[in-house]
Design goal:
With 137 residues, this protein is α+β, with helices and mostly antiparallel strands. It has three helices and nine strands, in the order ααβββαββββββ. A seven-stranded antiparallel sheet has the order 1-2-3-9-8-7-4, covered by helices on one side. A two-stranded antiparallel ribbon has the order 5-6.
């Protein structure tokens, strides 16, 4: 998982289909529309533990979300055994730090750091360890 996934964001689905790294990431999965009323379509890859969200109208990739995998590895040399200090030692100082908080309707929302290059790392509310890595526009 050493590819620069943030380079995928902002490209169209048709453009990405020409990229072998993208094809490897999606593992043969095809787009699906979860809800016709939404302005997005998705590709979910269980093997990569990745969810890709595209704008339905422009077909531009807006976000890639990597969930915790069985081996605990994430892109950017991160893993699920790292806390915020360890992540920051690899990615540098975040441009924004958001603490865990309680929101009406949603309940507790986990803490996350935003880094240069539109990288966002979410930490577990319980353990403070990496739970999700996002690349977005």
């Amino acid at each position: 998982m050493s590819h620069s996934y943030e380079c995928f964001v902002g490209n169209t689905y048709q453009t990405l289909l020409k990229d072998a790294s993208f094809l490897s990431l999606i593992g043969g999965n095809v787009p699906e529309i979860v809800d016709e009323s939404l302005d997005s379509f998705y590709i979910v890859s269980d093997s990569s533990k990745a969810e890709l969200i595209f704008n339905k109208h422009t077909q531009i990739l807006e976000v890639i979300i990597f969930k915790k995998s069985a081996d605990g590895h994430f892109p950017k040399s991160l893993n699920s055994h790292m806390d915020a200090d360890e992540v920051r030692s690899i990615l540098g100082n975040p441009i924004e730090i958001v603490q865990a908080r309680k929101l009406p309707v949603l309940g507790m929302v986990p803490p996350f750091d935003k880094f240069e290059g539109n990288v966002e790392v979410t930490y577990s509310i319980d353990t403070g360890l990496v739970e999700e890595v996002r690349f977005g526009s």
